[in-house]
Amino acid sequence: DADVTQTPRNRITKTGKRIMLECSQTKGHDRMYWYRQDPGLGLRLIYYSFDVKDINKGEISDGYSVSRQAQAKFSLSLESAIPNQTALYFCATSDSGLNEKLFFGSGTQLSVL
Amino acid sequence: GNSVTQMEGPVTLSEEAFLTINCTYTATGYPSLFWYVQYPGEGLQLLLKATKADDKGSNKGFEATYRKETTSFHLEKGSVQVSDSAVYFCALYSGGGADGLTFGKGTHLIIQP
């Protein structure tokens, strides 16, 4: 089984709908991250969490919210999806911070029509 | 702010050719530098890293040397294989815990038999 699991793998939705992307990990890491990947733009950080009580905005948090339900679970919500949120979304974890290895999930491809 | 610039892709090579993917960066302080690889349909995986000037990171036949004087971290491999076909991301982390890794836009490498 994958260490970092994202669900769903693919999602198509309409403008204005609420969407939740889920991430769970079995690595026992405290730190979890959400990134989005757009063609030609690389990866950009949306939100990150260093433990269950800690939530921090990243570079592009507008239009998104997150919930850290437990050490192993970190979900990303789009309250009212818009077409420019169409992207590939990655969850990642790390043990002791960004100077160390990040472990990525396989991604969720979201299309907002 | 921090930034990472990679050569544009796609880069197409024949099997057993020599590979160089250029990466230069702008950062405050003394960042750690990384190369991540993304195989089709998968999340990113750490390929190698270097945490201080003149360090050489290496893994799976790939190498990159942290060059402070030229602010570069070019990825090299002496003889590429078809299985090396992937997207390669250069990234940096300049410390402080916030803001995440800064990624380049990615370079798509295609190796032809």
What would you note in describing this structure?
Chain A is mainly beta and 113 residues long. Chain A contains no helices and 11 strands. In chain B, 0% of the residues lie in helices and 50% in strands. Chain B has no helices and 12 strands. Chain B has strands at 3-6, 11-14, 19-21, 23-26, 32-38, 44-50, 56-59, 62-65, 75-77, 86-93, 102-103, 107-112. In chain B, strands 2, 5, 6, 10, 11 and 12 form a 6-stranded mixed β-sheet that branches. In chain B, strands 3-9-8-7 form a 4-stranded antiparallel β-sheet, with no helix packed on it. The model of chain B has no long low-confidence stretch (mean pLDDT 92).
SSE order and pairing:
The complex is a heterodimer of chains A (113) and B (113).
Chain A: E1 4-7, E2 10-13, E3 19-25, E4 31-38, E5 42-51, E6 54-57, E7 65-70, E8 73-78, E9 87-94, E10 103-104, E11 108-112
Parallel strand pairs in A: 2-11
Antiparallel strand pairs in A: 1-3, 3-8, 4-5, 4-9, 5-6, 7-8, 9-10, 9-11
Chain B: E1 3-6, E2 11-14, E3 19-21, E4 23-26, E5 32-38, E6 44-50, E7 56-59, E8 62-65, E9 75-77, E10 86-93, E11 102-103, E12 107-112
Parallel strand pairs in B: 2-12
Antiparallel strand pairs in B: 1-4, 3-9, 5-6, 5-10, 7-8, 8-9, 10-11, 10-12
